[in-house]
Design a protein that fits this description.
With 457 residues, this protein is of the alpha/beta class. Helix content is 37%, strand content 13%. The longest helix has 43 residues.
């Protein structure tokens, strides 16, 4: 054999050296990442510790998301489809009302809701300068009014439409419009417990000094003017609500985000002074970030518009036009008699999904005495003509076992993220569970809940 080639040997040594350095860098990075992750987990566990069993919720205790990522943490494919114990380590986040169950329906619609906006269109801030809400796109206003008239869930006559970036911005705009700026004390804002968990946080977030969260409307009484929030159907428990606080100087704001026929029978056309709606719960398009208010008093509508003008200089025209197209598509399918099958129309489809999910959930809960759900009274829906029980967007579940003091922590220990009762102003024995998430998540949840129901205490 000949002598080794020195140049090749030098090259081999260089390659080995480079590989060695690269491997060491990877190893060090992994160790550092693991340490950071461990530290983050420790911090997360501290933040996740609720620590209190008080039934009263303060602004400090108001809900803030505790999940580390907003994305779907469930698996997809055989593990989910096969069920069993293979998914026990999967964390499912049912804390948020993320309406991904609607994706399947809108995929079937293909291009019916697709819009194309040329780059030169809708550049201006203004939509209709003659309108009280000058950034409201006329096309969206027409689509919203048409849908309300089709469903029969709200009176639109003698009301002004104010569009917002979701109903959350409209809520802030309402408080700004109703609370006097020259009062020596902030205006009180209340809602009957269990109330929507974000109300306390949103009310006091800016610490404006013109309004403040005052808690449970059942325990509130004053001779001064105040605002009562009436959420009907209620978030979290799905009940139909009326105003409850005492005092003749109250101003009512009706949050009707869930007053649609897939969630509850439509029994009347709501005709309130201020009514809030959102496309996220009506059609499931939460990412579009569009909500609207029907407001009777033009002065209040103008002040709400002013708040949004100061806050965001209007609302995205792109989002409004997309929302308009979606609402138009829903209404068109009901006007096209004979051209669209009944089960392919939006509200029939979403109603059937909610029926199926609630039937499955109640079947699981009824198998043991560990958990319970609210009971609802059936009513006849003027839109569909069907008589049915409300089937809310959230399940208000109670842990009945005496050994379980905090239901949210109990479910978290089994890799199910929920929102506990204390965030809604009531006992931690309750949790709110989203019924609107993906089919995969719901399947895993019901299977896991069934196993928990059958476990010995």
């Amino acid at each position: 054999m000949g002598k080794p080639n020195k140049s090749l040997m030098g090259l081999d040594l260089k390659v080995v050296l480079m590989l060695s350095v690269a491997l060491n860098v990877v190893l060090i990075s992994k160790v550092l990442y693991q340490e950071d992750e461990d530290q983050e987990n420790k911090i997360s566990m501290v933040c996740l510790d609720t620590g209190s069993s008080s039934s009263y919720v303060s602004t400090r205790d108001a809900h803030v998301s505790r999940s580390r990522t907003p994305f779907d943490t469930t698996t997809s494919g055989t593990d989910v489809l096969n069920g069993g114990d293979g998914d026990s380590g999967v964390i499912i986040d049912l804390d948020h009302g993320n309406p991904t169950m609607y994706e399947e329906y809108w995929k079937q619609m293909g291009d019916k809701t697709t819009i194309v906006i040329p780059g030169w269109q809708f550049i201006s801030y203004f939509s209709d300068v003659k309108n009280v809400c000058w950034f409201l796109e006329p096309e969206f206003a027409k689509a919203a009014i048409r849908l309300h008239n089709l469903i029969g869930n709200a009176v639109t006559e003698d009301h002004y439409i104010v569009v917002g970036t979701g109903s959350s911005q409209l809520y802030q705009a309402v408080l700004y419009a109703l609370a006097p700026t020259d009062s020596p004390e902030p205006m009180s804002v209340v809602s009957a417990a269990p109330f929507y968990s974000s109300y306390p946080l949103m009310t006091d977030y800016l610490k404006s000094g013109i309004h403040r969260w005052a808690g449970d409307a059942y325990n509130f009484c004053t001779d001064e003017p105040y605002i009562e929030l009436v959420t009907s159907p209620n978030n979290p428990d799905g009940s139909i609500r009326l105003a409850v606080a005492k005092g003749d100087k109250r101003i009512l704001v009706h949050d009707l985000a869930y007053y649609w026929p897939q969630y509850t029978p439509i029994t009347h056309r709501a005709d309130e002074d201020i009514m809030l709606f959102t496309i996220s719960k009506s059609t499931g398009h939460a990412g579009t970030r569009i909500g609207w208010a029907l407001v009777r008093d033009p002065k209040i509508a103008k002040k709400m518009t002013k708040f949004i003008e100061i806050n965001t200089i209007g609302v995205s025209k792109d989002s409004q036009l997309r929302a308009a197209r979606i609402l138009q598509t829903v209404s068109d399918d009901y006007d096209s008699i004979g051209n669209v099958k009944e089960d392919e129309r939006f509200f029939e489809y979403s109603y059937s999904v909610m029926v199926k999910r609630w039937k499955e959930l109640r079947a699981v809960v009824d198998k043991s005495e560990k958990f319970s759900l609210p009971k609802f009274t059936p009513d006849t829906c003027t839109f569909s003509g069907q008589t049915f029980e409300p089937q809310p967007a959230f399940a208000w579940l109670k842990c009945e076992e005496e050994t379980v003091e905090d239901c949210e922590n109990f479910f978290r220990s089994h890799n199910i993220l929920t929102r506990g009762g204390k965030h809604f102003g009531v006992s931690p024995k309750y949790v709110r569970i989203s019924m609107l998430d993906s089919n995969n998540k719901f399947k895993i949840f019901t299977e896991r809940l069934l196993r928990l129901s059958s476990m010995k205490s």
